[in-house]
Amino acid sequence: MMQEDDLWKSPEFQEGLAAYERAKEQDDGNYPNADMLGCIADYYDGLGRTDEAIAIADLALDLYPGAGAPLYFKGRVTLHHNDAPKQAETYSNQIVDKSSINYLLLKLDILLYENKTTEAETFLKEVYDRLPDDQRDPCAEMIASMYLNYDHTPEAKAWLARSSEKKEHSYRLEECRIAENEKDYARAEKIMQQLIDEQPYNDDYWNRLGTIQMQAEAYERALESSEYSLAINPANDATLTMKGKALVELKRYDEALDFYQRYQQKNPDDMKGELSLGIILTNLERYDEAVMHYQKAQRLAEDTAEGLDQIYIGMAQALSKLQRADEAMSYIDKLAELDEVEDTEVCTERFRVMLETHWPVEEVAAYMEQALGTYLFGKSWQGCFLFYLFGKTAYECHNYALCYGLFQRMSMLTDKIPKWYLGFSYYAICSKLMKSEDEFKKALRLACRMNPAEAKEVLGDRFPDDVPPELYYDYYLEWEKQNGEYSEEDDE
């Protein structure tokens, strides 16, 4: 089964696309067949030209009524663009060949969209066995892919196992997606490395590898993969944005700024690019410029509402740094109106503005206690989480005494919550700053045991680079022994 990116590059598709564009220009009626027109509609939709894509599908249905490919395309657009599963169902019913892959996949898409997993499995078992033998392997891979689109990994694994084409790239790419869904990034990376060994000049493969490395927080490797991809195809937009994200994660903000400024010159209406520039400029403490880019991102996001939560948070943080408290709070109010945003996030960002714009201590304390009280009553986990968020925010605002007090209070709740792992590194560093050595050691021990990644991020600059975060506590005890400050109680 050919992957979509490979399909667009194939000579067969390029010939079909040229034939369509020639027939359209000459108006001679010599259009490609229904399957090719369905592929061309998909291609145009992928370019963001959805209206043209729908027109191509309509043309195909005028020429070939009941054809599966254009009806499959129209059904998916109706389902995912318009949130209209009933209308999508009417398109599936119009497909003449009910034994076709197009019919099967559209019905499956609708059932999974409606969260009808049991009905989906029943339907597949009825239809799959009626497929011709030569269609079953590619269809099993497509079914697995569809399940992965909805994060149904066990079903995807079961259907992929039905395919005998285990050496094909299409099969191994779905294996890679399964590994990603299971957060087995080492296995996913290994699969992509093997595919790249076989096709070293496939820029999409390098981009996919970099995406996996980004998920694994291996940002240096992701940056290297993006460079390989861009060396093959400098115009790969997905890789360009991945490179920018890797630079930001590596805190190489000057390079990231130069990169995104050049990217935005070519893509001036890219909301995510403007948002990224706002984030980078905030980290460079160029807050006035950051506000300008957040404002542009907000204008670009008006139609889709995509990214508004990040835009509002970014605006509030930049305005807060500029001591424009009322404006910052107005963006927190906008944030609170978004359905997808958790109340704890709104509370935390409001708390941040209060600290950074130097609200009276008693007002900050009253707000903090009110917010914490809402989550502490019978909700240990939520209360603990808000203590963590408030404490981390206080640390970021350099209010170490407040941070220390918040994590002290959080520690009184964590015994009730098995496997709690957040915030111990912040508690450790603030205990050290407050000269509470016993609390520092206790928190450091928990940080190393429960959350080495957080320990590395928060405490890493206080330990040698070659000491893994899991061993920070042991290293500190050894350091104490050598400096005459060690107590045998620390080994208990």
From TrEMBL:
SUPFAM superfamilies: TPR-like
Keyword check for Oxidoreductase: no
Placement of TPR repeats on the sequence: 203-236, 237-270, 271-304
Keywords: Repeat, TPR repeat
Family annotation (InterPro entries): TPR-like_helical_dom_sf (IPR011990), TPR_rpt (IPR019734), Ycf3/AcsC/BcsC/TPR_MFPF (IPR051685)
Claim: Repeat is one of the keywords in the record: yes
SMART domains with a match to the protein in the record: TPR
Name assigned to this protein: Tetratricopeptide repeat protein
